[in-house]
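REQUEST FORM: STRUCTURE PREDICTION
Request ID: SP-0412
Submitted by: Lab K.M.
Chain count: 1
Length (residues): 240
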Amino acid sequence: MSEGIRVSACMACYNGEKYIREQILSVLSELGVNDELVISDDHSTDSTLSIINAIDDSRIHLVENRLRKGVNGNFENAMIYARGQYIFLVDQDDIWLEGKLEACLEGLKESVCVVHDAYITDGFLEIKSESFFKDFNCRRGFVHNWLRNGYLGCAMAFRKELLEYVLPIPEKLSVWHDIWIGSIAELKGGVNFIPLKGIKFRRHNFTTSITSKHGLPLIKKISYRLQLLWYLFMRLKFRK
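STATUS: Completed
RESULT:
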């Protein structure tokens, strides 16, 4: 960990030209002078890289995803480069709201990981729901979130020490990075759900997060959760 770096905001991006500039500026407005925004690009083919490079801010560290392609690999790549004491996960298309960072840092005094509430919006940032927590019945507890994931990645922050258990994310893991991180955090110090609505959580046609995928066959849901338990058992058994 580099001396002086407090927060590493870790963004995974891919062909994000439509929304990424607005998101980057919202993140930078919350970060302090001793924080950083690590952006891992998964080989974008649109103008994403040009947009990022045009933002003149030394806190931005743009890296190429040289791990496996996809959401989990891209976030893992970003976290590998993180140098701060606290890791904040960032989607390329949401908007950070004032007070998010400090509220999360306050919550991290008591828990190894925090997840805050969010407004759910459409592609134009029109609010469609006042509370992600209410819509998805979010609350702390390993069993509750194993059955119904409430660990919203783009609303998550955690202490860097957790990366010892989180990385590498299993290549064959069939669930997203957020439930993997949240589950480990729940077992290694607890997850604090805080009521602050810290982002506008944008849902649109290009969304790739798990919350946009409904209707999986029950057998697949069961299989994915059992697989998650297996990987958690193996990871925590050998990294005590």
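NOTES: DSSP finds nine helices and nine strands in the chain.
Reviewed by: T.R.
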